[in-house]
Amino acid sequence: MDDVRFSDEWTYRGLRTLILENRVLRVTVLPELGGKIWSIVHKPGDREMLWHNPRVPPRLPHHGATYDNWFCGGWDEVFPNDFPVEIDGEMWPDHGELWSTAATWEVVHRSDDAISVAFAVRGIALATRFRKVVTLRSGEPVVEVAYEIVNEGRETLRFQWKSHPALPLGEGARLHLPVRRVIDEPGFGEVFAGREFAWPMAPRANGSWLDLRDVVAPGSGDVQFWYGVDLADGWAAVSYPDDAIGFGLRFDPTILTPVWVFATGGWRGLETVILEPCTGYHADLTEAIAAGTHHSLGPGERLLTTMSAHVLAGPDAITGFTGGRTGQ
């Protein structure tokens, strides 16, 4: 049994940096950026599993900033909205309030077997409280995250929450999703023949077909943004077959009901794929509310759930994670 280590003595780019580590993973969290998980390194191969923007380093944002101009990569939480939107006369900022608000943090468990660190953010425009507890256990290539979202206001909160881990592209990278349908978000590059179609084959406007399991290629210039809906199970993964490694998420599909996917092989010269389990869709919250595909919490109500991120190392790891359904 190996010991789990924790350090709060480092800074990165002038930002407070917390490190959780076992013999398999090194996890770096930036509390001042809403508790962003900045890095997950698989130590046996010294491989960084999250994507980092080569031009935009982590830096302190301001509330209401445009997310894309501060998008440095890593793993954010997006709450209570994605696109900037006006709800009940109140402007909700781009990609919500968490990423631009410093989180308070505390170690809630520490032993040779596990370390758990809690991060909490109170809303600025909205009376909300968002708390997540990040846990790393001895010897496991898994990061566990327990979430609590509380509506501290006097009115019903209509919202979206999604995890937003940015992953690197790679030649031959594969996307694995247990979804049945795809709903496209128009205006993001790839033009499909229709807004809805069955997973995984997408009909293009030019009459050809695109297999969405093939992640967009680096340098291709291709951009996709769509929602995978009608989940048969609660997981999502990207694999890199040439390197026999992958990254997978497990979650409760009764709460995080679709998986959004944003993939770019050239938008702003950037190359990343983002897996985004979410409480609903569409990216415009007003459209989601009109369609009834949002989530709600009454005054004083809370949402509780857990998610785990898995580094899938070895030629059979992805088949084990997906139950053998690697073609999905």
Q: Can you walk through the features of this model?
A:
This protein is 4% helix and 46% strand. With 328 residues, the protein is mainly beta. The chain has an 8-stranded antiparallel beta sheet with strand order 9-10-11-12-26-22-21-15. Strands 6-14-24-23-20-16-17 form a 7-stranded antiparallel beta sheet, with no helix packed on it. Strand 7 (85-87) and strand 8 (90-92) form a beta hairpin. The two termini are 36 Å apart. The model has no long low-confidence stretch (mean pLDDT 95).
CATH secondary-structure class:
Mainly Beta
- Biggest sheet: strands, sense, closure? 8 strands, antiparallel
Low-confidence stretches: none
Q: Can you list the strand order of the major beta sheet?
A: 9-10-11-12-26-22-21-15
Q: What do we call the CATH topology?
A: Beta-galactosidase, Chain A, domain 5
CATH architecture: Distorted Sandwich
Gross morphology: globular
Q: What order do the SSEs take from the amino end to the carboxyl end, as H and E?
A: EEEEEEEEEEEEEEEEEEEEEEEEHEEH
Number of strands: 26
How many domains is the backbone divided into? Answer: 1
The rounded distance between the terminal residues' Cα atoms is: 36 Å
Which percent range fits the helix content?
under 10%
So what's the oligomer here? single chain
Rg over CA atoms, rounded to whole Å, is 19 Å
Helix segment count? 2
Classification by helices and strands: mainly beta
Rounded average pLDDT: 95
Strand content: over 45%
